[in-house]
Amino acid sequence: MLTLKTKKEFDNTYKSNKKWHDKHFAIFFKENHNSINKVGFSVSKKIGNAVCRNLVKRRFRHLYRESLPLLKKGDMILLAKAGIAQVSFQALKMDYQKAINRLGILQNV
Q1: Does the structure show a pLDDT above 70 at 109?
Q2: In the structure, what pLDDT confidence band is assigned to residue 107 with cuts at 50, 70 and 90?
């Protein structure tokens, strides 16, 4: 799994047209025509202590890895919002699947 590393990569993805805001997270997606998918996770200190932030990042990584073969090629940012640590993983997974369907970033299989 390749990650977004520089501020420029994050800024370009944030400015993309494909965005989805949910109650607990936001997704930003920018298509690229390379054969590489990159992902970035943004979990601020507003979410909680280090244990909570790491839990959220682990959940995001798992959701992203599961959906990776189905996604179009592009850069994605998963941004956590306050209260996400209290949400069950199953509810988070359902919201994530709904979001990527609505964004239209799944490949036509």
Answers
A1: no
A2: confident
Q: Which residues pair with 19 in a beta bridge?
A: 28
DSSP state of 106: B
Count CA atoms within 13 Å of residue 92 on its CB side. Answer: 25
DSSP state of 108: -
**CA dist., res. 53 & res. 59, Å (int):** 10
Place of tokens 């997704």: 27
Tens-digit pLDDT profile for residues 4-23: 999 999 999 999 889 999 99
Residues found in the chain: 109
Output the DSSP codes for 5-58: -SHHHHHHHHTSSEEEE-SSEEEEEEE-SSS--EEEEE--TTS-SHHHHHHHHH
